[in-house]
Design a protein that fits this description.
This protein has about 350 residues and is of the alpha/beta class. The chain has helices at about 5-10, 30-35, 60-65, 85-95, 110-115, 125-140, 155-165, 190-200, 210-220, 230-235, 240-245, 255-270, 280-295, 300-305, 310-320, 335-340; strands at about 15-20, 45, 50, 75-80, 100-105, 145-150, 170-175, 205, 225-230. Helix 3 (about 60-65) links the parallel strand 3 (about 50) and strand 4. The structure holds flavin mononucleotide.
Amino acid sequence: MTQHEIFSNLLRAPAPVLSLAPMQDVTTLQFMRVIARYGGPDVYWTEYFRVHGDSRPEKWILDSITKNPTGRPVIAQLIGNDIPALVRNAKLLQQYPVAAIDLNLGCPAPIVYRKCAGGGLLRELQKIDAILGALRDAVTIPFTVKTRLGFESPAEFDTLLPIFAKHTIDLLTVHARTVKQMYRPGVRYDLIAQAARELRCPVFANGNVHRAAQAQALVAETGVRGLMIGRGAIRNPWLFDQIRAQMRGEKIKLPTGRDVLAYIRELWENEITPGVKESSQVMRMKKFMNFIGDGVGEKFLHEIRRVATTADFFRVCEDHLDHDKPLTLEPVSISEAALDLPAAF
Ligand SMILES: Cc1cc2nc3c(=O)[nH]c(=O)nc-3n(C[C@H](O)[C@H](O)[C@H](O)COP(=O)(O)O)c2cc1C
């Protein structure tokens, strides 16, 4: 069976599909290898391929497709606004073992949106319409879109939905924030529910999914086909299996401090690049520790952000994690209120 047949079957099966969000510089081949050992998601997204002029797919991102070690499908994400270049790259990428081609309509980085790509396209509805039409014609495997709610205001979602409805896309993932909102509180799960109600294609919910019971409630309340999880999965790689257990009605197993320590050691081993300076390796790990630390506690986060050497890095990790107590790994930076579903669905 091809990767896209496996993915299409997942979308048709009754169980909610769990996916790992695309995260630049995080969801690399190395990270996929680690998270797969913890159960992992049902489907992976690559970080985005930058598409412009005569660009070709970046080799290191292609590695996460050609060397995919997970045994699960991977979707190739594109970012850009140059229609001939998007079509050319989509045609190239679909010759690789990918489950789908995905278009990024959400990146909030000013350097991206000012060039009218990613989230910037949400101010150019006619352009989105033209890109979706061209990519739909060019892509012979599933074609999916990942969007935010709008650029300035969630009210824009009402004008976006008819454009998604007009084109035969195979999946819409909704990160239920606006571009201007970046990652601030106020995820509009009610608008994800609206998309799931109004569109014929499957919809995935994305944004602030951090624990199994919340994930289960989100699927039930919004009627989505699946969930996309980003930061919550870096912080807690057990999350996908915890959600599966929750949905089977089983008790959730929490990792201990030592389990988290072993996860950090595994990440370290996987991220080592031969010949790289010690300080660069520590810096690279901090990319992950910003998220993991948020689940361990403020004091840990404060200390780990300040280490510069390998010895200090592991000393701080051992000080805080060399114990057998269970950890929920829920973020300290997000209030309980922001994690919970709004009552008024
Ligand atoms: C470090 C980082 C890198 C990201 N890179 C991408 C990307 O390449 N493509 C994309 O569509 N979204 C990207 N995102 C957004 C995530 O896919 C996701 O939509 C967002 O983090 C919200 O989900 P979460 O609350 O589960 O993390 C990135 C997010 C983070 C934190």
